[in-house]
Amino acid sequence: EVQLVESGGVVVQPGGSLRLSCTASGFTFDDYTMHWVRQAPGKGLEWVSLISGDGGSAFYADSVRGRFTISRDNSKNSLYLQMNSLRTEDTALYYCAKAIGITLLYYAMDVWGQGTTVTVSS
Amino acid sequence: DIVMTQSPDSLAVSLGERATINCKSSQSVLYSSNNRNYLAWYQQKPRQPPKLLIYWASTRESGVPDRFSGSGSGTDFTLTISSLQAEDVAVYYCHQYYSTPLTFGGGTKVEIK
């Protein structure tokens, strides 16, 4: 079964740092582009970042560029999101998601985890 | 950035009736080299992650009931639920993956009338 499990979400103070993890199983992890998508309480979906299967390409939303860093360890089937200089507006449920295809960089996301909650509050 | 605008924000449809959701992108998401529209639709039920319904604007994801269909090209797209079932109550999002930053529409809440 293809599965993604996020972890690492906690309550953190503004200006703090946090690293989220996503552990994948059931597919050849290094074949696929992976994403982080977040959802603030009661709001819609916001794409955060993506990383290519080999880790050589990464892209970010303007709202997080320079503060967040996406990475992956293909030997551990794991995806990460290092979050620095956190702001209250970063409070959200953070999902990791898998791209549906392997040939192109940009695909729809066919498998999503259950999410991990990040709360930025003093 | 490509802005995705969905309409309506919400709609109430009787069981068995058709539901239609529209999505407009601020620029074309049709990639000329492969003639594919980089447009997907997701369904999100309360306290669940999004579920992929449609990709490449009209390709139904495996296991998705055939009452769900996607159409459109370029900048204008539609998700149609041909005969609304109780389990279809959810928020639906369109999503462009043509270029970064990837973007989502604001969502359309579908309820039973």
Q: Which pair has the most extensive contact?
A: A-B, 22 and 26 residues
Radius of gyration of chain B: 13 Å
Write down how many β-strands of chain B occur, each being a DSSP E stretch of 2 or more residues. 13
Q: Using only CA atoms, what is the Rg of chain A?
A: 14 Å
Summed up, the helix count of chain B is 0
The count of β-strands of chain A is: 11
- What is the 3D form of chain A? globular
Poorly predicted runs of chain B are none
Question: Could you tell me how far the N terminus lies from the C terminus of chain A, measured between alpha carbons in angstroms?
Answer: 40 Å
Helix content of chain B: under 10%
Tell me the layout of helices and strands.
The complex is a heterodimer of chains A (122) and B (113).
Chain A: E1 3-7, E2 11-12, E3 18-25, E4 34-39, E5 45-51, E6 58-60, E7 68-73, E8 78-83, E9 92-99, E10 109-112, E11 116-120
Parallel strand pairs in A: 2-11
Antiparallel strand pairs in A: 1-3, 3-8, 4-5, 4-9, 5-6, 7-8, 9-10, 9-11
Chain B: E1 4-7, E2 10-13, E3 19-25, E4 30-31, E5 36-37, E6 39-44, E7 51-55, E8 59-60, E9 68-73, E10 76-81, E11 90-96, E12 103-104, E13 108-112
Parallel strand pairs in B: 2-13
Antiparallel strand pairs in B: 1-3, 3-10, 4-5, 6-7, 6-11, 7-8, 9-10, 11-12, 11-13
